[in-house]
Each structure stands twice: as structure tokens, then as C-alpha cells.
Amino acid sequence: MKFFIDTANLSEIKEAQDLGILDGVTTNPSLMAKEKITGQANVFAHYKAICDIVEDGDVSAEVISTDFEGIIKEGKELAKLADNIVVKVPMIKDGIKAIKWFDSEGIRTNCTLVFSAGQAILAAKAGATYLSPFVGRVDDVTWDGIKLIEEIAAIYSMQGYMTEILAASIRSPLHIVQAAKAGADVVTCPLSSIMGLLNHPLTDIGLKKFLEDHQKSLQG
Ligand code: G3P
Q1: Are 161 and 120 in contact (CB under 8 A)?
Q2: Ligand 1 atom with least separation from CA of 60
Q3: Which residues contact 28 (CB under 8 A, 6 or more apart)?
Q4: Which one of 98, 130, 171, 197 has the fewest CB atoms closer than 10 angstroms to its CB?
Q5: For the chain, which ranges sit under pLDDT 70?
Q6: Cα–Cα dist 125/119, whole Å
Q7: Is the pTM value of this prediction over 0.90?
Q8: What is the CATH T-level fold of the domain 2-219, as seen in this structure?
Q9: For residues 62 and 44, is the Cβ–Cβ distance under 8 A?
Q10: How far is the CA of 11 from the centre of ligand 1 (A)?
Q11: Could you give phi then psi for residue 87, rounded to 5 degrees?
Q12: What is the structure's pLDDT at 158?
């Protein structure tokens, strides 16, 4: 399973990249706004900076337009920024049309705002490279986001769809483990969820004891 980080914050992206396990980055308009990146030139420069940090890793950059022509125009501009840009397109009628068009042009896409298996089938038919079901936001409305990943994974494998399932809106280390078990190809999550995977009290207790015993052995 690939690990993407879900942020537009350059220092968090660098920290995750330094860990050596980062496969890519996802952004969205809310995450860009959080970094106070506004104006097309600044937005494009920021995407380029992210692409430079992750080198070969995929970087999802989202279109703002919601009409076919606008999505195509924006997507073409974004795709020109770097080879590792993936154009993020919302799950709407014109978005599906645009994903089909991008696929025919060899431009990779991430279909975002996915909340049902039906939407997942449509995105795969259109040729999306990645599909982003929002696990945490499904949980927020008391449905089961991980069950949705399981359902989509079963359908994709049965039907032989090539679209990769990118479990998004991941909120905790437990979500990462559950998404892996459910058959996600990729998880995208905050740095805190990735770092949370490190933690176990028995690791801390065990390491403390090993180091104490080592000190004792030095003292004879
Ligand atoms: O990038 C989309 C998704 O990961 C957003 O997550 O936590 O805002 O629901 P969240």
C-alpha cells in the first residue's frame, strides 16, 4: 500500500519525505487555503515546490472549475507543471466527462469526493487513475467508511478495474491499518496519523530495558 500525505504544508511534506516512506501528496482547495496560498501564480509555484520535494511521488492538484471546458483548461495547466502532477477532479457529471478526456490524453487523474460504490464504478469506467473515497467523512455521518473501501475493493477486483483506491479523509493510525486490511491501494493522511503508527508502550518499555541492561553490562 502506498503512503501519501494529505497536506499542502511544505515542512510536513519534507518531514514525511525524510522518513523515506512517502509515495506522494494529496492537496485540496481547503488545504491550500490553510497555507494561505492564493492567486494562480502562487498556487502553481506551491505545487511545483511540493513536486520538487517528493521527486517521483504523485502530487494531486485539484481543479476549481465545475464545468467541462473549465476543468479541461485548468487540468491541462496543472499537468504541465510537472510530470508527477495528478489532476484532482470532483465526482460530478462534467468531472466524469473530463476524467474520460484526460485519460484519452494520457493525463492522470484523481477522482475526489467519492462516497458510494456507484460513484466508484463510474470513475473507474471513465478511466480515473485514482479514486478518493472519504473514509472519515463517511464515518462523520455514522456510516462506515472502511466498509465502503472493502465494497469498492471487492468490485474493482471482480471487474478487473485498474483504478487505484486511494483511501482519503483518513483521521487516525487505526484508519490506516483498517484501510490496508480493506484493500486500499493508497492511504492519504495527516503526518500525525503516519507518525502515530510508530507508537506502542511495549516498544518504549522494551527499549528502556535494553538500554539499561546495556549500561549495566558496561559497568561489569
Ligand atoms: O483530501 C481530501 C480528504 O483527505 C479530506 O480529509 O479530514 O478534511 O475529511 P478531511
Answers
A1: no
A2: 1
A3: 62, 88, 112
A4: 197
A5: none
A6: 10
A7: yes
A8: TIM Barrel (3.20.20)
A9: no
A10: 19
A11: -80, 120
A12: 98
CA dist., res. 143 & res. 133, Å (int): 13
Dist CA 16 CA 9 (whole Å): 11
Query: Among the atoms of ligand 1, which is closest to the Cα of residue 171?
Result: 7
- Residue 204: other Cβ atoms inside 10 A: 10
pLDDT per residue as tens digits for the range 160-203: 999 999 999 999 999 999 999 999 999 999 999 999 999 999 99
Give the whole-angstrom CA distance, residue 89 versus residue 86. 9
**Largest Cα–Cα separation, the chain:** 77
User: C-alpha grid cell for residue 213?
Assistant: 541492561
Q: Give the pLDDT score at 38.
A: 87
| Cβ-Cβ contacts under 8 Å for 107 (sequence gap 6 or more) | 75, 76, 79, 87
**Where do the domains of the chain lie?**
2-219
Residue 134 Cα to ligand 1 middle (Å): 7
Residue-level length of the chain? 220
The ligand 1 site (C-beta within 6 Å) comprises 6, 26, 28, 134, 136-137, 168-169, 171, 188
